[in-house]
Write a structure and sequence with these properties.
single chain, 388 residues, alpha/beta, Aspartate Aminotransferase, domain 2, Aspartate Aminotransferase, domain 1, 7-stranded mixed β-sheet, 5-stranded mixed β-sheet, 14 helices, binds pyridoxal-5'-phosphate, PyrdxlP-dep_Trfase_small, Cys/Met-Metab_PyrdxlP-dep_enz, pyridoxal phosphate, Trans-sulfuration enzyme family protein, PyrdxlP-dep_Trfase
Length: 388
């Protein structure tokens, strides 16, 4: 049987559910027991239900499906992607440790490593390098963690994940990967030896712009510690209702990703032919400098990419303000198409154009291609480009 069919159809809980064809919502905070002995017996069973900060059947069902989809042994859901990523990081690092991360990882992740954890005696190195040799050169005797995220947020640089992971294994360094962009449909980091995978469930996995959530997936041993320590002690749990929305989103994840991929490639190729567009940056295009590395890692490409307009800041403003279907917003992965003019972030984005490094922040637009008709999306871009 197809892996997705098998995982998605299995809605078994431990209690009778009257034949419900869809997952049930357990919106309760606590679970009562019939007797002193039953209470005492369950007290030390990590799988038993006591209190919904720890275990909740709806959340646990989601965790079991996400673990299977990522080929992991276990998973823990959290109230946001950042709660998941920070729990994964805290489960690995101690005072005196050193962590290596790319310069273009999700900004809050970089802030935890480089700013927040500094107070707890953690050292961090941020790299431009996408190849193994750059990561090798950054290793110190106290390097404990590689934080991987690929492709990068705005420029879609691809890390050589297989080589960097082999290096980490050789040196006894733990690896965590933020796999939000690819989703389990297009990449399974645990399969290449990465130790922990984190996702923001707020993007494609829930898929309807109505959930903020996160998950960490990995071996039973690593998850046991995360459940016992970072999840239970910091308490950043996912609510059962949000877990139910993610369970519903999961049922269409695979077909949504296929459609996002198809529409996005169509739009990216269309934009490559437009004179007002200077450069389209999409790892699935032959023009991307790391296209062959990307295609050797990922089974497909999601709906996020960037392009550089042939204009200035005023032209970029005119362009995004003229869009009718694309709306201006952060985040991604929902039904609706979004455009993010990177200039609003006010951080320089160095990029090599025609052999010269330039700051492209003023003219770089990142788009999340939604599930609207792809022809309509191309036409929307075309009419807005006329206003540049
Ligand atoms: C959105 C995002 C996060 C953070 O997730 P939240 O659910 O918003 O906390 C982390 N990493 C990446 C790559 C993201 O896009």
């Amino acid at each position: 049987m197809n892996k997705w069919t098998e995982i998605l159809l299995d809605e078994r809980f431990e209690e009778p559910l009257h034949g419900s064809a869809a997952p049930a919502l357990f919106q309760n905070s606590l679970f009562v027991k019939p007797s002193f002995d039953a209470m005492k017996h369950d007290r030390y069973n990590p799988k038993s239900y006591f209190y919904s900060r720890g275990n909740n059947p709806t959340v646990n069902l989601l965790e079991s499906k996400l673990a299977q989809l990522e080929n992991g042994e276990d998973a823990k859901c959290f109230g946001s992607g950042m709660a998941a990523i920070s729990a994964a990081i805290m489960s690995v690092l101690s005072a005196g440790d050193h962590v290596v991360c790319s310069n273009s990882a999700y900004q809050p992740t970089r802030d935890i490593l480089g700013k927040y954890l500094k107070r707890f005696g953690v050292e961090a190195t941020f790299l431009d390098a996408v190849d193994e040799s750059g990561w090798r050169a950054a290793i110190r005797p106290n390097t404990r963690l590689f934080l991987l995220e690929s492709p990068s947020s705005f420029l879609f640089e691809i890390q050589d994940l297989r080589a960097i992971t082999s290096l980490a294994i050789e040196k006894g360094i733990v690896t965590i990967m933020d796999n939000t962009w690819a989703t389990p449909v297009f990449f399974n980091p645990l399969d290449i030896g990465i130790d922990l995978v984190a996702h923001s469930l707020s993007k494609y996995i829930s898929g309807h712009s109505d959930v903020v959530g996160g998950v960490v997936i990995g071996s039973a041993d690593r998850l046991k510690k995360i459940k016992h320590d970072e999840a239970a002690l910091f308490g950043g749990r996912m609510s059962p209702f949000e877990a139910l929305l993610v369970l519903r989103g999961l049922r269409t994840l695979e077909i949504r990703m296929e459609q996002h991929q198809q529409s996005t490639l169509q739009l990216a190729r269309f934009l490559e032919d437009q004179p007002k567009v200077r450069k389209v940056i999409h790892p699935g295009l032959e023009s991307h400098p790391q296209h062959s590395l990307a295609s050797s890692l990922f089974k497909g490409y999601s709906g996020l990419f960037s392009f550089i307009l042939n204009t200035d800041l005023a032209g970029t403003k005119a362009f995004v303000d003229s869009l009718r279907i694309f709306q201006i917003g952060v985040s991604w992965g929902g039904f609706e198409s979004l455009a993010l003019p990177v200039a609003i972030l006010e951080e320089p984005i160095p990029y090599v154009l025609d052999g010269q490094e330039v700051d492209v922040a003023d003219t770089l637009v990142r788009v999340s291609v939604g599930l609207e008709d792809a022809e309509d999306l191309c036409e929307d871009m075309l009419q807005a480009l006329k206003r540049v």
